[in-house]
Amino acid sequence: MLSQRLNHGALLFVELRRIQDDAGLSPGDVDLIALSQGPGSFTGLRIGLATARTAAYVLEKPLLAVPSLDVLAENAPPETPAVATVLDAKRGEVYACCYARHDGRLARQMPYAVIRPDELELPEPCLVLGDAIARYRDSLARPAATFGPEEAWRPQARVLARLAAERYAAGERQDTHAVEPLYLRRPEAEEVWERKHGKR
Question: Which of 44, 59, 67, 79 has the fewest Cβ atoms within 10 angstroms?
Answer without folding.
Answer: 79
